[in-house]
Amino acid sequence: MVRAGRPLRPFRSVRRGVRGMTATPSACAICHVLQRSDWSVMAPAELDRIGAIRKRREYGAGEVIFEAGDDNRGIYCVSVGTVGVRRMDENGNSVLLSLAYPGDTLGYRSFLGGSAHRTSAEALGPAAVCMIDGAILRELFADNPALAAQFLRRAARELEDAHDSLFHNATLSNRARLAQLLVHMMKRHGRDEPDGSRVIELPVSRRDLASMVGARHETVSRIMSRLEEDGIAKFSGRQVRVPRVENLLREVRSSASA
Amino acid sequence: MVRAGRPLRPFRSVRRGVRGMTATPSACAICHVLQRSDWSVMAPAELDRIGAIRKRREYGAGEVIFEAGDDNRGIYCVSVGTVGVRRMDENGNSVLLSLAYPGDTLGYRSFLGGSAHRTSAEALGPAAVCMIDGAILRELFADNPALAAQFLRRAARELEDAHDSLFHNATLSNRARLAQLLVHMMKRHGRDEPDGSRVIELPVSRRDLASMVGARHETVSRIMSRLEEDGIAKFSGRQVRVPRVENLLREVRSSASA
DNA sequence: CGCCAGGTTGATTTCGCTCAAGCAATGTGG
DNA sequence: CCACATTGCTTGAGCGAAATCAACCTGGCG
């Protein structure tokens, strides 16, 4: 395995940024993610209303969007980049619960519950995120039943994902879970190479990868070594080369304890 | 530990029951679970509408309410008893994902997604469940924004629960997870004894208990033995006696890998 | 009665965690 | 520009937890 030292990209700035967040004149109606976002069900007039009050902000890699314990001030819509949803316990163990992509909505759980955030969200690379104020959002929900229905669909899908993870964590081995995570990441972070192999640009560190499969980072490192030995994938820093995808897929099924 | 052979109660009838499901004249408005169900936000007239078309049915222990792969025909509202939500993989490994109680709603995920059920639901003891037809439900959602909001809140809460489980599975040891599950079950299935101890009547088998904590049933059996040795709980069939609840609570915190 | 499902227990092995050392790439202060 | 610290990662040794395989018990049922 190729040694991977400190990452090349800027990493984990400590301070969060509320400053610099401003309402921009450009409306959501022209946002490139509109089609796949939850807001696609809204009428042009309503979109203008959101566009007028939403606050768009750019984030650098590692910058925090909101943090566990913060009061909920509204919900966030990812416009550009990848955002990680994280949770920490009292001992400082952090678990990366899920990844959010352009069009995804963050923070709606604590918004609906009227409670403080229980998770943190941070940009995993350069990203842009819009915030929509809670008060206006409540009006929109009241006015437009389709919006609530849309969010309901989203919640249902996310719940299904969470149950999937729950199920697989209980059933599969660490190796199989890592393989599955790689398969999953191929969809968003993978590209095809001329030689027919597939390359994944991992959006997260080894530690976070480990927390996502529910293992220690050393263990993940070892599993990677063995996957290389078996010719299933080749790891080099945050880059993963998968010569034959079906081999990786077989990994997922194999350890299902017949 | 007291040996627990075959359970005394009727168990796991193979056939499901669609027959016997009839629209009853008694309306939801008089249903004893109305207050804590998702339907509490509805006006009396709307409740009558549901009451007229909902189909109530009684289930015996182990009877299946719906099964993975079935088309969704509506959603289910638990009226009496405890219902288990289960998921199976291709090898027959089954995982009990969650428990549902009176007032809880089942099957809304596949209803919203318009897809087939991906989980099965079964009565864990004598139970009664009402089904509300999908077509009428869609109208109700369109007419009453508060209903969608209510379901949204429910989905948010369930999502949070799922994330909690995900998080704890990644962090805690098997022993701590079992302790936590027992604590959780105390709320619904526990009763206080005159001597100050607390007795839990487990609604599920050892195997299902094991699947809920993500361990083999042998392992759960061994953990139980050790919990008895340590005087934390006493297991006898499906009955668990906890002399001092705080000791069990300490179990949960302890193995959090300082 | 024998069978079966559910449960317990033991022996063995495998997996994954902890602790610890060390490397690579980067950043920093003198 | 160099010594040095820091961060992220890899690797090894040892150990403990849990899975696997297998035997056996218990109580209900056809």
Biggest sheet of chain A: strands, sense, closure? 5 strands, antiparallel
Structural class of chain A: alpha+beta
- Count of helical regions of chain A: 8
Return Rg of chain A in Å: 20 Å
Biggest interface between chains: A-B, 40 and 40 residues
Q: What is the multimeric organization of the chains shown?
A: homodimer
Give the overall silhouette of chain A: elongated
Any descriptors?
homodimer; 258 residues; alpha+beta; 5-stranded antiparallel sheet; 39% helix; 22% strand; DNA-binding
Summarize the structure.
Two copies of one chain form a homodimer. By secondary structure, the first copy, chain A, is α+β, with helices and mostly antiparallel strands. Chain A has helices at residues 44-53, 108-113, 134-143, 145-171, 174-189, 206-213, 217-229, 245-254; strands spanning 22-23, 55-59, 64-66, 74-80, 83-88, 94-100, 105-106, 120-123, 127-133, 190-192, 198-201, 234-236, 239-242.
